[in-house]
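lol ok so funny story. i was supposed to be doing the assay writeup but got distracted and ended up predicting the structure for this chain instead. priorities right. anyway since i did it might as well share w the group, maybe its usefull for someone
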Amino acid sequence: MHTQQIISLEKKDQYIYSITIIGILFFTFGFVTWINGSLIQFLKIACQLRTDVQAFFVTFAFYMAYFFLAIPSAKILEKTGYKNGMALGLLVIAIGSLVFIPAANSRSFWLFLTGLFTQGAGLALLQTASNPYITVIGPIESAAKRISIMGICNKTAGIIAPLMLSALVLKNATTLEEKIKQTTDVAMKENLLNELTGRIVTPYIIIAIILLLLSFLIKKSSLPEISDEDETGLASENVKTGKTSIFQFRHLILGVACIFLYLGVEVMAGDAIGIYGKAIGISTDETKYFTTFTLGAMLVGYIIGITVIPTYISQQVALKISALLGVFFTTAVFFTTGYTAIIFIALLGLANALMWPAIFPLAISGLGKFTAKGSALLVMGISGGAILPLIYAALKGPGVGLSNHLSFFICMLPCYLYILFYAASGYKVRGQKNY
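and the output, tada:
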């Protein structure tokens, strides 16, 4: 009995250690990801972008990397293992951060996008490894709770990131923006723009150094590998699928579409809220902090998730409630104006919080040996964060000319309705008892 207790304590210590390490990783890529809300507004000024469509190429370059790199990431993980794959992902993100130095020096928007795409590539590898890892290191029915804990790490970083970056690179942004617009002397305007762009260098050097250090620490850590048995453990013992292809899992394919649309609405609520605010006449000095409001609401949502899942409600029910909240808040944005509309956009963070924690485990349930590939497909769905903001910007742009609030409504409502469908029936695994 004493020996069993020691073994049990050792397993518990290893479990806590593993969750702590993965929590640090989620904090890290949360920080890198949610800087983009401030970066959109910064680069629109610094690179003198004329339209919001151009500005949203920030999120496009970043999130499209997931689409192109998710499947290769799964293959890389087969060779490196999960721990080394995470270390490699951090290294790639660090390289992308360092690209910001020549981008700032040349004030090249396309070089900035290259750095963002490189960061996204590293994050694709990191996400492909870390999400199934946190899912399988404990019981599948409580996976949403563990992912919610990771979400708290991610969104805490997301709250801090735009505040820090805005304080450093968007200080007195409205005054500087007006000064740049009014300056007719070409040399003086160039000096102002160069001074503004130079503000981004030091933060990204610091980010790169931290990422390189974390990569080394993960490489040297005692983080355990998850084996084929662990992955197969995601499959129900009652399932006799006989499936030979990942594309034969209906609930997974529908889940990929669900992740795609979820990421679209998450990025709209988090990164596009500043552009929405500017479109209704709010100054950059205020809009630069709006992303933090959304992420604060998401943080509250994750805390609720940890409290109620799976003790009081299942992850499927949590997803259904979240989708209904998304429909309600989106409709409220449409029928309100000014700061009230901004509040409802920020509250979409509350609606979105439990979506990833619920969709991911529901979508990979019962995949068994296909878990890694299924995870990669779901990570590809993150590219939804690249597409939806561009559609929003195009709808309200001079080409189409819809109003700002109608464009937002058209982009958001269908997404939440599909997520509601997935929560109601799309998640069901044929031949398997569902959560």
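Residues 2-34 form the longest helix (33 residues). The domain at 2-228+245-426 is CATH 1.20.1250.20 (Growth Hormone; Chain: A;).
back to the writeup now i swear
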